[in-house]
Specification:
- Its main location: endoplasmic reticulum.
- It comes from Phodopus roborovskii.
- GO terms for molecular function: calcium ion binding; mannosyl-oligosaccharide 1,2-alpha-mannosidase activity.
- By secondary structure, the protein is α+β, with helices and mostly antiparallel strands.
- Helix content is about 40%, strand content about 10%.
- A three-stranded antiparallel beta sheet has the order 5-6-7.
- A hairpin with a 4-residue loop joins β14 and β15.
- It is globular and about 60 Å long.
């Protein structure tokens, strides 16, 4: 008998006052210009509160108006907010913050750091800011974008992460010490997202620096997960990186798994890699076959496909946006509208929502101002222009301002039922939530460039086209210009072919040099046809020769916790009683 969902009627809705610019009785859509300014004011209220009360700590504690370190003591909110400053048009503050980060951020500290969080927030944030520096009016050094202080910082941080990948399977540990590498007693259990969320940042870093080690380890990790999927095509939630055996066998699209699927799609687009897209499409078939019910996505047992948890997690709200990237607009909109009903019920998305009961799950009633539903709205609005998506943006602005705004910023909502607050403002609020809201209401922002304008930059390797659009957001909403990956690569055959075409106009000697270059280039990476036995990956113990500038190698990770308390690196957990 097919599993069906029974959604209770008469859900209680949170009614919030509408400001000027909200739809009136005539059903007019929210005024984008009005809400764009509201979002900008939200950003500066939070950003200024961080600078005044929390810097140089990682994050702001808005209820006590002070700061605390959360992911490693990197002034994390400043790194996460940097590209948002430019998207909002504040070039002068962008330039100031670049100088501050160069002078103050130090990765040579005795701290256990999350490999996943360091990559998406620190490496991703620095890479994005590096690639946007010239547009922000920063005086870039000769050779940019193939060199620069923010790029060196990103490389330094990423190199700190490499020891985590030195496992028999090539799948990384979840935590690393910034000075000492992987601690001897470190748990080998890592969530799926913590293994498969590196290809965007690491491939970009390899392309810009010329060092293939980063992209290599990211691809090995992706391939090992692909090999480890079940016979019905699903992956679980947590795996032992030493043995390759699944520890948590719940399969779904949410916490602990989400950005793995996201990076297969975004990695495929960024790198024009058909194999990565083929892998995602195979997963997508299995997801639709076993987890998809009435436009909701449930959790199932990865080997049997039987439902284990009929819940919706707020982190799953990225999925409609991802569907839009592969052109599955109709399914994306139906799922989005389901999620939007939950938002309207509570004025936010609870971490867990019991679908059959139509209510929150005990101890998972909070909303830490996550961006995922807003992110999906932005993607879908670009694809459809449906004004319903602007209405979600309006509702988000009204809800967050009414419930979460305090004197020193915006506070996490501890419980959506009674609007109790928690003393934390996550850095992703400025990196993602505000950014996606602003871009939803700003159709002419440079991020949405359709290729009609671009910048031409001369590099040591020839002319490079940047800023033409098509930006790929990492999972922390840091935009990467895909054209930049073609500016500095020396070993990719496609780059040499372009250069050879140019040389044909100037010299007849290109044939010999092209043949020499082809012997240097490596063939395309091929994913295995099916599950297989992982082989030990190449070790990368020795760093490449460093530049004269001091190279501090960084790495982030969260404090060691019992397995049941950290089922997901993305902040979502399952309890023993679940």
């Amino acid at each position: 008998m097919p599993f069906r969902l029974l959604i209770p009627l008469g859900l209680v809705c949170v009614l919030l006052p509408l400001h000027h610019g909200a739809p009136g009785p005539d059903g007019t859509a929210p005024d984008p210009a009005h809400y764009r300014e509201r979002v900008k004011a939200m950003f500066y209220h939070a950003y200024d509160s961080y600078l005044e009360n929390a810097f140089p700590y990682d994050e702001l504690r808005p209820l006590t108006c002070d700061g605390h370190d959360t992911w490693g003591s990197f002034s994390l909110t400043l790194i996460d907010a940097l590209d948002t400053l430019l998207i909002l048009g504040n070039t002068s503050e962008f330039q100031r913050v670049v100088e501050v980060l160069q002078d103050n951020v130090d990765f040579d500290i005795d701290v256990n750091a999350s490999v996943f969080e360091t990559n998406i927030r620190v490496v991703g944030g620095l890479l994005s800011a590096h690639l946007l520096s010239k547009k922000a009016g920063v005086e870039v050094e000769a050779g940019w974008p193939c060199s620069g202080p923010l790029l060196r910082m990103a490389e330094e941080a990423a190199r700190k992460l490499l020891p985590a990948f030195q496992t028999p399977t090539g799948m990384p540990y979840g935590t690393v010490n910034l000075l000492h590498g992987v601690n001897p007693g470190e748990t080998p259990v890592t969530c799926t997202a913590g293994i498969g969320t590196f290809i965007v940042e690491f491939a970009t870093l390899s392309s810009l620096t010329g060092d293939p080690v980063f992209e290599d380890v990211a691809r090995v990790a992706l391939m090992r997960l692909w090999e480890s999927r079940s016979d019905i095509g699903l992956v679980g939630n947590h795996i032992d990186v030493l043995t390759g055996k699944w520890v948590a066998q719940d399969a779904g699209i949410g916490a602990g798994v989400d950005s793995y699927f996201e990076y297969l799609v975004k990695g495929a687009i960024l790198l024009q890699d058909k194999k990565l897209m083929a892998m995602f499409l195979e997963y997508n078939k299995a997801i639709r076959n076993y987890t998809h019910f009435d436009d909701w996505y449930l959790w199932v047992q990865m080997y049997k496909g039987t439902v284990s948890m009929p819940v919706f997690q707020s982190l799953e709200a990225y999925w409609p946006g991802l569907q839009s990237l592969i052109g599955d607009i109709d399914n994306a909109m139906r799922t989005f509208l389901n999620y939007y009903t939950v938002w309207k019920q509570f004025g936010g998305l609870p971490e867990f929502y019991n679908i059959p009961q139509g209510y929150t799950v005990e101890k998972r009633e909070g909303y830490p101002l996550r961006p995922e539903l807003i992110e999906s709205a932005m993607y879908l609005y670009r694809a459809t222009g449906d004004p319903t998506l602007l209405e979600l943006g309006r509702d988000a602005v009204e809800s967050i301002e009414k419930i979460s705004k305090v004197e020193c910023g915006f506070a996490t909502i501890k419980d959506l039922r009674d609007h109790r607050l928690d003393n934390r403002m996550e850095s992703f609020f400025l990196a993602e939530t505000v950014k996606y809201l602003y871009l939803l209401f700003h159709p002419n922002n440079f991020i949405h460039n359709n290729g009609s304008t671009f910048d031409s930059v001369m590099t040591p390797h020839g002319e490079c086209i940047l800023g033409a659009g098509g930006y790929i957001f990492n999972t922390e909403a840091h935009p990467i210009d895909p054209a930049a990956l073609h500016c500095c690569r020396r070993l990719k055959e496609e780059q040499w072919e372009v250069e050879d075409l140019v040389r044909e106009f100037y010299s007849l000697k290109h044939s010999r040099s092209r043949a020499q270059r082809k012997t240097m280039s490596s063939g395309p990476w091929e994913p295995p046809a099916g599950p297989g036995t992982p082989s030990p990956p190449e070790r990368h113990d020795q760093p490449r020769e460093k530049q004269p500038a001091k190279q501090r190698t960084p790495l982030l990770s969260c404090p060691s916790q019992p397995f049941t308390s950290k089922l997901a690196l993305l902040g979502q957990v399952f309890l023993d009683s679940s």
